[in-house]
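Lab meeting notes turned into a lecture example. A postdoc, R.K., suggested we walk through two folding results consecutively so the class can see how the record format repeats. The first protein's sequence and structure tokens come next.
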Amino acid sequence: MERAPKPDRPKIHGGYLDAKLLAWSWAEVRLTRSLNYWVTSIAPAGTPHARPVWGVWLDRRFFFSSGSRIRSNVLARPSISINLESGDECVIVEGVASELHEAMAIRRVTDAYNAKYS
């Protein structure tokens, strides 16, 4: 079983009023329930490329489909960031993207995606 990611927060001048970090389960609920996500990939010039996408959080991984620009960015530089659209309940997940090729995994993701977005 994979272990939960280590919680962290962005560095903000002056710090935070509450130093308590939230449990990973709190973030997973929001990742599962969210309808819209922002995916940031790295463009060929090295600049960030952010776009809203639909997706599903399944087995502690984020699955999404996108247009050719994000795909070509990820194939060249697989580092990405996924953010929820809410600024009040912020969740940011950073990781490495890859294409999904296994037929059974694609079916599970497709079923979850169709159930979520009807």
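The second example is placed directly after the first for contrast:
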Amino acid sequence: MKTQDLLNHFTKNLNPRFRNWIGAEIETHFVGAKGRPITIGCSQKIFGELTQKGWNVATTKGNLVSELRKGGAKILYELGRQNIEVSTEAMCHGDIQGSTEAILKELYACATLCNAHPLFEPIINSKEDLLIIPDERDASWLALDGKEALSLLACTASVQFTIETRGPEHAVILLRELPNAALYMHARNPYPQDKLWMEYIATSKAGYRIDRYGYVGSRAKDPLYLIEDYVNLLSQHDAVIDGKLVPFADAELPIDTFLRSVWWKFRLRRYSDRLCIEIRPIARRTDGEIWSSLSDILSGLANFDR
């Protein structure tokens, strides 16, 4: 990969019309009647019930159904066998809550038919082996990280919102200022996963740079004033390819695959012709707390609109 390609990814052929698009990724733990994490068999039954509601099988791994789709929405495994993620398509601010709640309601109903129910907690306490590897990207991480490190992330459930920016300059302002705004957000919805992510980085056999997780540009020696600064910081990180770390300049893989493997709490993503910022450090709690967190985020973002 070349840094110029990465810069072009964030700056070229963007739609100048701002639509206030928002997408959501909501992970949920599911447990059985005795409060134990559901089995792979139970989660597969839930996926089966969803196919009866019009969801289509999009991806399989071996004998496992790993992803369902309906329109632009997805339901899929996260790293834990008990952790099922709902991923929505980007849509206008006024539509995101109602559309997402309808999908969650359908998921909960199908889980009930399988004697399972959602656990609205960010971390599930279990000594069981929860890790499930539903796609090739995760399999590559397992080979690189080792099971002990990756299993730390299998017991967490988080929420991410992907919010459209007004372009590269606006996006950089948000990246620079949002860590301060996050202090208020976390006062209402603490993020206990933080300690597990730091332990993951420290215990992984990969030997990641310590700043592969955290706030981008938060160190004094890494000022963030231009989109070029952001690109330069990204290019300092190796890419994950076939269970190995490969220097950025030597790596040949899709840009978005690389971007997903640098776990900054606020990071830029490109969706179609829109430049968005992904807000990641939100703990999974009740559905109501999801939307209060989004309200806090949008209030914080409004302070930086131009």
